[in-house]
Amino acid sequence: GAGVSQSPRYKVAKRGQDVALRCDPISGHVSLFWYQQALGQGPEFLTYFQNEAQLDKSGLPSDRFFAERPEGSVSTLKIQRTQQEDSAVYLCASSPRGQGSGAFFGQGTRLTVV
Amino acid sequence: AQSVSQHNHHVILSEAASLELGCNYSYGGTVNLFWYVQYPGQHLQLLLKYFSGDPLVKGIKGFEAEFIKSKFSFNLRKPSVQWSDTAEYFCAGDGEAGNMLTFGGGTRLMVKP
């Protein structure tokens, strides 16, 4: 596709449920980033991949959060045993080689935990 | 620790007014700076970026920003805003590694017709 695609756009989960959020980056983009954006705040870094290698996961808030990009293209962010504080918009971004983190963003997945 | 701050949370302007949104950063070493815009219901879009060179950077839609190292600032400007500029604006930075963006809290701009 022409841009970064994320699915689903909206997800409502009951507390304790596991969720999986998908990101299709722009074709050929080496770098992929996940961010979390709470209501009324700027996005906060979660994790970064270069191809299939997860080079930085320092922003993941707990061990309930897990991300993968097994073939270096599509990525999945998984949240286990969701809690209310996990409610946020989860943004995926990708960038080509050499462009650093000035990336192209998807529209995000709005997760609401009830 | 690296940080980016935006002091104006909400700005209301009339059409044709001039715009300046403040952004300050705190980084050790090399810094790359960005401004993103998010129109209602849409994804974040890159307005402009500064890596090095000329500190006055021109972006899309008539926006520009000036990197002032002595003031640790990267303010966004537009000489004459339009109603269609109503959006949320985010300043962001990353370091030499270029592997993560640190965002400011955002500024909501409303332009009254």
Task: Considering the chains and any ligands shown, give keywords for the structure.
A: 114 residues, mainly beta, 7-stranded mixed β-sheet, 4-stranded antiparallel β-sheet, 11 strands, B: 113 residues, Immunoglobulin-like, 6-stranded mixed β-sheet
Low-confidence stretches of chain B: none
Put simply, the count of helices of chain B is 0
Mean pLDDT of chain B: 92
CATH topology of chain B, by name, is Immunoglobulin-like
Number of strands of chain A: 11
- Number of E strands of chain B: 12
As for the number of domains of chain B, it is: 1
Share in β-strands of chain A: over 45%
Helix count from the secondary structure assignment of chain A: 0
Which ranges of chain A are low-confidence, i.e. pLDDT below 50, for 5 or more consecutive residues?
A: none
Domain tally of chain A: 1
Identify the most extensive interface between protein chains: A-B, 28 and 23 residues
Please provide a brief summary of the model.
The complex is a heterodimer of chains A (114) and B (113). Chain A is mainly beta and 114 residues long.
What does this structure look like?
The complex is a heterodimer of chains A (114) and B (113). With 114 residues, chain A is mostly beta strands. Chain A has a single domain, classed as Immunoglobulin-like. In chain A, strands 2, 4, 5, 6, 9, 10 and 11 form a seven-stranded mixed beta sheet that branches. Chain A starts with a strand and ends with a strand. Chain B is mainly β and 113 residues long. Chain B has a single domain, classed as Immunoglobulin-like (Sandwich). In chain B, 0% of the residues lie in helices and 52% in strands. Chain B is built from no helices and twelve strands. In chain B, a hairpin with a 5-residue loop joins strand 7 and strand 8. The mean pLDDT of chain B is 92. The chains are: A mainly beta (114), B mainly beta (113).
